[in-house]
Amino acid sequence: MNMETRHAIERVKRQRMRLNPFSTGTHFNLDISVRLDYFIDIKKGLQRSED
Q1: Number of C-alpha atoms within 13 angstroms, CB side, residue 31?
Q2: Dihedral sign, Cα of residue 16, residue 19, residue 20, residue 21
Q3: Distance of CA 8 to CAs 13, 18, 49, Å?
Q4: DSSP code per residue over 7-30
Q5: d(CA 30, CA 11)
Q6: What is the C-alpha separation between 30 and 21, in angstroms, rounded?
Q7: How far apart, in whole angstroms, are the C-alpha atoms of residue 21 and residue 34?
Q8: DSSP label at 39?
Q9: Which phi and psi (to 5°) does residue 2 adopt?
Q10: Domain of life of the organism in this record (predicted)?
Q11: Spatial distance between the Cα atoms of 34 and 43, rounded to a whole number of angstroms
Q12: pLDDT tens per residue, range 8-48
């Protein structure tokens, strides 16, 4: 493997490392939003059953 190829591979690895936290964060935020909506629906159902 020549030096130019090695530098190109290192650049790709660095770019992936920069993109991964963003992608993970987006998925994490979406997951929390869905769980909150589910929790709110459960609480509404419990309040209706008490009436």
Answers
A1: 6
A2: positive
A3: 9, 16, 62
A4: HHHHHHHHHHHHHHHHHHHHHHHH
A5: 29
A6: 14
A7: 20
A8: H
A9: -85, 170
A10: Eukaryota
A11: 15
A12: 767 665 554 444 555 555 555 555 555 666 666 666 676 66
> How many residues appear in the chain?
51
b or e along 5-24 (b: 16 or more beta carbons within 10 Å of the residue's beta carbon)? eeeeeeeeeeeeeeeeeeee
Q: What is the Cα–Cα distance from 7 to 22, expressed in whole angstroms?
A: 24
Give the separation between CA 28 and CA 32, rounded to whole angstroms.
Answer: 6
Cβ neighbour number for residue 31 with a 10 Å cutoff: 10
DSSP state of 2: -
pTM over 0.90: no
Residue whose structure tokens are 């964060």: 25
